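Minutes, project check-in

Agenda point 3 was the complex the collaborators sent over. CS summarized: two entities, 440 residues total, and the question is how they sit relative to each other. Sequences were read into the notes so everyone works from the same version.
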Amino acid sequence: MEIKILKEIMEDVKASAKEIREHLKGKGVFMVNVMGSPGSGKTSLIRKLIEKLAPLKAGVIEGDIETTRDAEQLAGLNVPVMQINTAPFGGECHLEPSWILSALKELPLEEIDCLFVENVGNLVCPAEFDIGAHLQMVVLSVTEGEDKPLKYPLAFRVSHIVALSKIDLLPYLSYRLEQVESNIKKTNPELKLFALSAEKDKGVKELANFLKEKVETFKK
Amino acid sequence: MEIKILKEIMEDVKASAKEIREHLKGKGVFMVNVMGSPGSGKTSLIRKLIEKLAPLKAGVIEGDIETTRDAEQLAGLNVPVMQINTAPFGGECHLEPSWILSALKELPLEEIDCLFVENVGNLVCPAEFDIGAHLQMVVLSVTEGEDKPLKYPLAFRVSHIVALSKIDLLPYLSYRLEQVESNIKKTNPELKLFALSAEKDKGVKELANFLKEKVETFKK
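CS then shared the predicted structure for the full assembly.
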């Protein structure tokens, strides 16, 4: 019985994700699912990307268990932000497409070219749920160590981009870039790597340009 | 139906956790559940703690989705280590007491005073599952930012100790210690804070001494 219910839930998820992807395609809104551990630097990176994507217009859906801190951090950018708190749903460790659907109803989609979804800070669960995004990005900070692509492979397998963040801290860590690169390749040879620091504004432009191209191709 | 099944599962979890706690009490084994984000420094800290706990004897249960890297990192310490991989269970984001029970059967409990369980790297899910430990510790690295106790409150609410790790990186971060202290107090005023760096061997001794006392009181 339990297996049957789980199967039904995952089928619902797939159907909703497909619905979202098609709906947004019709509206010309490119959706990016941003995943990563707590404190990997997702919010800071999204903030910088939004600045650099102009004149393309951005929007954000913020997923958090509790608090609206990340949404507040994005205030002042003058982009539409919707907050989803999972605490009322038992503090869920990921976002589900049904919640994205509800959030989309509240967002002015005609004013958005690129919609970032900041998933719950968690390198495990969000990767299991297709939320209907057109691009999946995993943020991995260098302070987390080189072995994470091997230990938490699913997030790397379902992603198109890995943003290797906080590279300004490299001089103070015993971190081997070639090691993480090799671990990423082993886990998913298709994954595109961007090494960057949002704090020091290093390497973010390259990722922004990549996204710009993606969004423009998508809208054609 | 779904709710009923979930309720039954959580009742099973509670019963198994209680069984484990009593079983270990009888054997004089003090169990510590170590939780935290991927890359927060759990393995390095456990390694250092084991060295400093001597002559008390330690053991480790390593929880990972895939790979045995953390267990390998502990080899050479000459303590019994059991690896639990959750990949065969659908890549579960946490450890469950039933798996701990199986691991306990394989460990030489009579040779262990303090048993560390390194949970899956995840600041959300492990906190939801009582695994029968006598002490709960959450490891939070300073690179994760000051706001995590507010954003992921459950792990901090169910813990007795927070190990604030990687403080050797503080000079390179815009991090306010008083801010994280205040956020910890707001979330759980009972939580005992140890600021430390396993890499630079700073502050670990204080935590080891605290644990030593706990283990000795427990064994009386």
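Noted in discussion: The longest helix of chain A spans residues 2-27.
Follow-up: revisit at the next meeting once the mutant set is ready.
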